[in-house]
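To close the section, here is one more complete example, presented without commentary so you can practise reading it yourself. The ligand is 1,3-dihydroxyacetonephosphate.
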Amino acid sequence: MNKEEIRNKITKLKKEKNAVILAHNYQIGDVQDVADYIGDSLGLSQKAAQVDAKIIVFCGVHFMAETAKILSPEKTILIPDIRAGCPMADMITASELREWKKNYPESKAVCYVNTTAEVKAECDICCTSSNAVTVVNSLSADEILFAPDKNLAAYVARHTKKKIIPWDGYCYVHRYIKARDIMDKKNLHPQAETWVHPECLPEVIDLADKVISTGKMVQEARKTKKKEIIIGTESGIIYRMKKENPTKNFYPARDAAFCFNMKKIDLGKVLRSLENMIYKVEVPLEVSQKARGAIEKMIEI
Ligand code: 13P
Ligand code: SF4
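Output:
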C-alpha cells in the first residue's frame, strides 16, 4: 500500500469506528497530517476528554496516552506502538518516590506530567512545562520535591523563593542540545530569536530569548513578527511550525534532536492500531483515581 492508500483507509476506518486521532507536536509529519488534533502533552489529554468519540488513537508516548486514559476512563485509548515510552518518565518509580518523600516529611512532591500513572498517584500535584512555576508557587510548603526532570527543576528554582529539591532525571533529547549548538546557530542566523524548552540545560536556557513549552512555541510562532527563530526542542515540531507559518524560518538548535520514542509511530502503525484495536492503554482503577486527583489539582490552578 502506498501512503495515499493508507491515509484513505485510516479516514474510512475513523468514520466507521467513530474514532479520533491525536498527535503530539513531535510526531513525524505523516502522522501529524492524519491527526484530528495536534498539541502538547496535557492539551491532548484534555482534548481526549472533550471529544465525543469513544475511541482515541493517541500518537505520542505512553505517559501521555495514560494521562488521557486517566482523564477519560470510559474511552478506549489506543497507542499505535506499545514501545513508545518516555525514558525520562521511567527514571523514577512509585516506590522510589515513596522512599524519597519519607526523608522530607515537611515537603510537597510535585511530579512533571512526564511520569507514569503510579508515580502521579504518589505525588501531591502534577505540573507541565508551561505551569511548573505557578504550581510550585501555589503550594503552602517551603520545600518542594520535584521529579523527575532536574533541568526543569533548575528552571523552576530560578523563578521561586521555595527550596527545590530535584530528582536526578533528564530528557536525553534536550540534554543533547548544547550551548555551543545555540551559539553556532546564532552566528549563522544573527537576526533570529532563540526559543528553548525548559527541559534544556541551564546554560542553554541562559542563551534563550524565550523558555516555553511546545504548545506555547506553536502559538508564539503564529504571533511573532520575527521571521527567523532558532528552536531548542525536539526537531519534529518544526514540521508543524513551517506548515502553519510558511513565510517564517525555523531552525533546529541541533539538527538531529530527535526523540526516537516519539518516532516509533508511523502511518502503517496508525492504520494497524485502528484495524486491530491495538494497543489498549489501561490504568488500574485505584491508581487512576489517585493520579487523577493530582492532575485535577493542577488543572484547577
Ligand atoms: P510538552 O508538554 O511541552 O508537550 O512536552 C512534552 C515533552 O515530552 C517534552 O519533551
Ligand atoms: Fe520523553 Fe524527552 Fe522524548 Fe519528551 S522528548 S517524550 S521528555 S524522551
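Once you have examined the C-alpha cells, check your reading against these statements. Residues 40-41, 114, 128-129, 171, 199, 213-215 surround 1,3-dihydroxyacetonephosphate (ligand 1) (CB under 6 Å). DSSP finds 15 helices and twelve strands in the chain.
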